[in-house]
Specification:
heterodimer, A: 495 residues, alpha+beta, seven-stranded antiparallel beta sheet, globular, B: 407 residues, Uridine Diphospho-n-acetylenolpyruvylglucosamine Reductase, domain 3, Alpha-Beta Plaits, 3 domains, five-stranded antiparallel beta sheet
């Protein structure tokens, strides 16, 4: 993975920068010791690592603004970082960059039950928001698997999803406002507690912008009342095809489950061995369908889904009878990643989204690719929204296995795009999928995105080397092709 | 010289933009023109009319995704979705009658470009939340795409969010992909009569915090309720608070009963079924209470819901305004008899002090020239927004000044 060239001139400024940061940050909030920097060398995508030049740990927005001002004036690159749980390398440091760690922004600022909002600092964890409001019967809906550790600021930057987003949306659908610092140190606020804002929807743009447009310091989220009840259905199929058909039929029948997950045989076995969830082991595909809402609705829809599943040839159907059983059904799925970690020294998690109707075909081709690369694969799948998570099993200690795993992964993502899907549903592009962007977007598409980046960051100092396969200078992108003093095409079109 | 460009395909759109960029011809961009009177008046002699770019290109009900060209009417899309028992869940309002044009002509592109959402916004999000992907032409006459045709996607910047609500100032849409959802099997609207506004807002807030999953919550003061074409509402002779529940039949009936039970402690209760419920919410969405009173200046005000009655009381104490509430108070439709600088400032200042936003939806063109139609932006945001505009449209040829003067 090629990263932006290291600027030796910047490296030479290292101790002077440390001194300037220490003028307003405590000794331990400015890290430049090799061993301490090591903590920050990677994120959730551990295949890549790089020691940052300096790590700073501010705890006020004003400090973030000062840091960014200094970095702008000295031409120093900046990498924002939340909890470092991201799976696409979005927080991968740069050798000549300052990593701005936001873990100290851990205060919940305001909980407003009347307006159903919570305003929190950027480093508050996803789960902590729910924990802060659950006594009153509320929760924050997006629930990425890393919710115990991942921060809300990171969730906004990556536009994180989770298992309930078909019904409740992803991060962008659940935030109302934020405060952020632009690269030149300017502090801006977007949105608030109201549901509509004038002007361009910059809040919507920031969600999923992967730390390339600004450093988020505060977020206002929508909180929701906990549904009155929830039940889950465990459905086994003797073919992947029947499971895929069932997913399509449930949606076609007008039922939007709060969660609909699918696992293939390899994933089922790994999860069951790990967590004793009670999954059937003699099936090729397993669906977990969760319905929530008033009890009358849940029972009614559960029956509908059972009928649909039966008509699709389900060989095994179990409905949760109580909350404990429902959680047990989920325990296996939620532990799928560590479970795979137990059966393979390393695994590589992919994240493409496909049209649900192409599932059978895509899984068959993933199996072919598995043979081609001679690497095992286990599939877990947010079936409700078409988001695939194939887990490629490999051993980094064996020569060329990592390389094969990466090629296998790239082929899966290209396949997702080929069938009308996208490279990433919820993990982000980061460095991991950066060089695959060209399979989905052409040069004009990417240029338009990079011009928007230029509107925020003319010098390209914020998190460069992520998302975009080619770095362009803003001046070059801004040029319009002028011929003889005019843009060609002088004729008035007539139609 | 006035020119009207009415391209019929993407190539023609691109050619027209290339011409306009080369000749420095700023142009007014429109679909069916139903919302031309919304925004700062442009007074441009070149018009880019996208109404010929029509047709549903791709619709796969089980994928919950529909792709259409921007000039396709919402009526056509609705008919297409209805056949499969689906809908655009954000319940796009038809503001054409309010703005003085014919009803039922609004296009998908225009609705997305103005990010217009109806009563169900409180549960399912706004138009922008349902806008998944696009093809468009930027101000450099370059075709580009963004987003995708699947419901979950974080590949690249979400440029769709910028286009939603940009009022045609950034790029010309040539293809729009939206998320669609199943229509509810059953709908019930519970009416509670005679609440004064503070208790109405606090009651609606309680319902939003309940487990009843309401999909629309409005409060109509007595003077507004009297104008409804739904007799149960207009004949009551007092304020009407309305809550809609939707979903599978047993669930809807159960929740409706629960709400009736809760509400009966507060006042007289009624319920609307089927057509009458639909009519009631169409009136709320389309601002029907103010449509025929053409002399009134109309504001759309977004505030933190619990502040709603405080904002209206502040305005009402100083001018002869009338209003009603949607989105459990989060949206106020307010009309004033005058549209002078004093009353406009009164509205803006009252809303701003509650942390909300006001949009001048209906006013004479001369008023919309001197008063900002959209909530004025703080300086830093204005500068940033202007740079975003430039990143799409460096020569400022798409609807210049429609959102903000000089942008």
């Amino acid at each position: 993975m090629k990263m932006p060239e290291t600027d030796e001139g910047v490296i030479a400024k290292r101790s002077s920068l440390v001194g300037r940061f220490r003028k307003f940050l405590s000794e331990e909030s400015v890290i430049n010791d090799h061993d301490e920097l090591k903590v920050y060398e990677t994120d959730g995508l551990t295949a890549y690592h790089q020691l940052p030049m300096i790590v700073v740990l501010p705890d006020t927005t004003a400090q973030v603004a000062k840091i960014l001002k200094i970095c702008t004036s000295e031409g120093v690159k900046v990498v924002p970082r939340g909890a470092g749980t991201g799976l696409s390398g979005g927080a991968l440091p740069l050798a000549d960059g300052v990593t701005v760690g936001l873990a100290k922004f851990n205060r919940i600022l305001d909980i407003d039950y009347g307006n159903r909002t919570a305003t929190v600092q950027t480093g508050v964890t996803n789960l902590a928001i729910t924990q802060a409001v659950e006594a009153k019967g509320f929760y924050y809906a997006p629930d990425p698997s890393s919710q115990i550790a991942c921060t809300i600021g990171g969730n906004v930057a990556e536009n994180s999803g989770g298992v309930h987003c078909l019904k409740y949306g992803v991060t962008t659908n659940n935030i109302l406002g934020l405060e952020m610092v632009l690269i030149d140190g300017e502090i801006i606020r977007l949105g608030g507690k109201h549901m509509e804002s004038a002007g361009y929807d910059l809040l919507g743009l920031i969600a999923g912008s992967e730390g390339l447009l600004g450093v988020i310091t505060e977020v206002t989220v929508r909180i929701l009342p906990r549904p009155a009840s929830a039940r889950a259905l465990l459905v086994g199929f003797s073919t992947v095809e029947a499971g895929g058909k069932c997913v399509v039929e449930i949606i076609s029948a007008g039922v939007i489950p709060s969660g609909m997950e699918m696992m293939d045989k390899a994933a089922i076995h790994a999860a069951e061995d790990y967590s004793d969830a009670g999954y059937p082991l003699d099936v090729e595909a397993l669906l977990i369908v969760e319905l929530d809402g008033p009890k009358a609705e849940v029972d009614h829809l559960l029956q509908r889904v059972e009928e649909i599943a039966t008509s699709c040839g389900a060989v095994n159907i179990r409905a949760s009878k109580n909350e404990g059983e429902r959680l047990k059904f989920w325990a296996g799925r939620k532990a799928a990643f560590p479970a795979i970690g137990r059966i393979s020294p390393d695994y590589y998690c992919m994240d493409g989204t496909i049209p649900r109707g192409r599932l059978t075909e895509v899984l068959a081709r993933v199996t072919d690719l598995s043979d081609k690369y001679n690497l095992r694969v286990a599939n877990v799948f947010h079936a409700g929204d078409g988001n695939l998570h194939p887990l490629i099993l490999y051993d980094a200690n064996k020569p060329d296995e990592l390389e094969r795993a990466e090629k296998f992964g790239a082929d899966i993502l290209k396949l997702c795009v080929e069938v009308g899907g996208v490279l990433t549903g919820e993990h982000g592009v980061g460095v991991e999928k950066r060089d695959l962007m060209g399979t989905m977007f052409n040069e004009q598409d990417l240029n338009q995105q990079q011009r928007v980046k230029c509107a925020f960051d003319t010098e390209g100092l914020l998190n460069p080397g992520k998302v975009f396969p080619t770095l362009h200078r803003c001046a070059e992108l801004g040029r319009m092709h002028i011929h003889h003093g005019r843009v060609p095409f002088p004729e008035l079109p007539r139609f | 010289m006035e020119s009207l460009l009415r391209p019929t395909d993407d190539t023609q759109v691109r050619e027209a933009v290339a011409w306009a960029a080369s000749e420095n011809k700023p142009m007014a961009v429109l679909g069916a023109g139903s919302k031309t009177a919304l925004g700062r008046p442009a007074n441009l002699d070149t018009t880019m009319d996208l109404c010929k770019l029509t047709g549903v290109l791709d619709y796969e009900p089980s994928e919950l995704v529909l792709t259409a060209r921007p000039g396709t009417s919402l009526a056509e899309i609705d008919a297409c979705l209805r056949e499969q028992n689906q809908e655009l869940a954000f319940e796009p309002p038809d503001l054409a009658p309010l703005l003085g044009t014919a009803p039922n002509i609004a296009t998908l592109g225009g609705t997305i470009a103005c990010n217009l959402s109806g009563p169900r916004r409180v549960r399912v999000g706004a138009a922008r939340d349902h806008f998944l992907g696009m093809r468009a032409i930027n101000g450099r006459a370059e075709a580009f795409k963004a987003g995708g045709k699947v419901v979950k996607n974080v590949t690249g910047y979400d440029l769709c969010k910028l286009i939603a609500g940009s009022y045609g100032t950034l790029a010309l849409l040539t293809e729009v992909t939206v998320k669609v959802l199943p229509r509810a099997e059953k709908t019930r609207t519970v009416l509670l009569f005679g609440l004064e506004e503070n208790s109405a807002i606090s009651t609606l807030s309680d319902v939003m915090a309940s487990v009843h999953e309401p999909t629309a919550l409005a409060h109509l003061p007595a003077n507004i309720a009297a104008r409804s074409s739904v007799d149960l509402v207009s004949n009551a002779g007092c304020a009407a608070t309305a809550v809609r529940v939707e979903g599978p039949t047993p669930s809807t009936i159960f929740r409706c009963e629960k709400l009736r039970g809760d509400f009966s402690k507060l006042g007289e209760v009624e319920e609307l079924h089927g057509q009458r419920s639909a009519t009631f919410w169409k009136e709320v969405a389309n601002v029907t209470p103010f449509v025929t009173r053409r002399e009134l200046t109309v504001w759309r005000i977004a505030v933190a819901p619990i502040e709603a009655a405080i904002v209206t009381a502040a305005i009402g104490s100083k001018c002869n305004a009338e209003w009603y509430y949607d989105w459990a108070g989060g949206l106020i439709w307010l009309a004033t008899p005058q549209s002078d600088v004093t009353s406009n400032n009164l509205v803006r200042d009252s809303v701003a002090s509650a942390g909300g936003q006001a949009t001048l939806i209906r006013a004479e063109a001369n008023v919309r020239t001197v008063t900002s139609v959209f909530e004025p932006l703080p300086a830093a945001l204005y500068k940033l927004s202007a740079r975003v505009k430039q990143s799409f449209d460096p020569k400022g040829i798409f609807n210049p000044g429609r959102l903000y003067a000089g942008m």
